[in-house]
Amino acid sequence: MKIRSVGYNNRKKAFEIKVGPRAFTFPYSKAVPPPTVDDPVRRIAVDKDLAREGFTYVLESGREGTVHVEQVLEYNQDPSYLRDLLLYKLTIEAQKRIEASPLSRREVVRRLGTTLLQVLDCDVDFVVRVKSA
Q1: Angstrom distance (rounded) from CA 52 to CA 50
Q2: Tens digits of residue pLDDT in 39-85
Q3: Chain-centroid distance, C-alpha 80
Q4: Are 62 and 103 contained in the same domain?
Q5: 84-120 burial by CB neighbour count: b if 16+ within 10 A, else e?
Q6: Which of 33, 55, 65, 131 has CB atoms 3.0–4.6 Å from 6's, for a disulfide?
Q7: CA distance 82 to 14
Q8: Residue 132 domain-assigned?
């Protein structure tokens, strides 16, 4: 996802990012290095070297930091991003299981009338837990 624009709000102590039609905030405290009252943001811009998928900021002290759009989306619990992340994790797990499986690739393909993880003798459970601090 490409960042359209980026700014900062010292009152809220957060960066303000526009990604597509949506607007997000990202707290200073999550950035490295974090802007502070004694070392505020001097300059900020969408980073073209990151294909507009991140932004770079420079603090008054000259220290520089970069935030990737994925950090912003994860912090804001964006549903599209979380869905894609879950699908990616399931894909990686399925690839590992295929490599470790005694089944031939032909047999795996033949059984694909069902889900891939079931072919590999796996159950997929989604667990909801209380969020830890």
Answers
A1: 5
A2: 999 999 999 999 999 999 999 999 999 999 999 999 999 999 999 99
A3: 10
A4: no
A5: eeeeeeeeeebeebeeeeeeeeeebeeeeeeebeebb
A6: 55
A7: 22
A8: no
